[in-house]
Amino acid sequence: MREADKLDNMKSQDRVFRSGGQGGQRRRCDSFVNSLFEEAENAGALTASPEDNDSNADVIIKMWKNGFTINDGNLRDYSGAENCYFMDSVRKGELPEELQKTFQKEEISVNFEDRKSEDCSYRKPQINPFSGLGHRLGSATPKIITKDSEKCNELILPVVDLNNLEPLTTIKIWMADGKRIVQKFNISHRISDVRHFLERIPSKSEKVPFIFATSFPLCEIMDETVTIQEANLQKSVLVQKLLKCTETFGKS
């Protein structure tokens, strides 16, 4: 399909948000967002890898029933011309030009949240949630990134034994309670070692069984015996996904 055809198809899907009954609008919105996720996942993750690998940024795109937001910024209409080009890049697994200009010298991790069953009711000024200061205690102790560090009690963080003679990598962990942790591991560490690290961090969900998943495309990690290198998870984002009480929790 030609690029113009893809764009025309996207615009025609966007237009349905402005007309029709609420039930039809909801079904078309679900179809649009599901299609977007599927096409983007097939194309691959949206990442950029410049030379400065130590500098990175998270971009969270929330797909709402009535539009989408970037890093909790202003609500943007799916049907806007500029937004249409943005979403077309997402469909193809490409990094939108808008994000390239905003994060010129940073490695970008683009992650999606499916909120298509909800209306976004707030419109607040764009802020940069990554401009605050983190806290690094020692070379092997992770950095905690919080939206409001002044109101967040400092955690007791475990220490990871690192072998400086072996290659190191940085793993970003999104905890189920909203906290974000950046931790260094050897690439020979297993996913089970990452689990052991996370289980030693006090949290409200510490006794709830969980699995790990990659951020985007969302993919559950079922085999925790593999190493970070074998799973190709260097410099990746891992999401702690809590299991429901009715689900069977299999040990690795």
UniProtKB/TrEMBL annotation:
Domain UBX residues, every copy: 164-241
Ranges of biased composition (kind: Basic and acidic residues): 1-17
GO CC, one annotated term: cytosol
SEP domain residues: 56-121
Top-rank taxon: Eukaryota
GO biological process: autophagosome assembly; Golgi organization; membrane fusion; nuclear membrane reassembly; proteasome-mediated ubiquitin-dependent protein catabolic process
Region (Disordered) residue spans: 1-26
Molecular function GO terms recorded: ubiquitin binding
Classification via SMART domains: SEP (SM00553)
PROSITE patterns according to UniProt: SEP, UBX
Pfam families, sorted: SEP (PF08059), UBX (PF00789)
UniProt-listed InterPro entries: NSFL1C_SEP_dom_sf, SEP_domain, Ubiquitin-like_domsf, UBX_dom
PANTHER family in the cross-refs: UBX DOMAIN CONTAINING PROTEIN, UBX DOMAIN-CONTAINING PROTEIN 2A
Protein name: UBX domain-containing protein 2A
Species this protein is from: Hymenochirus boettgeri
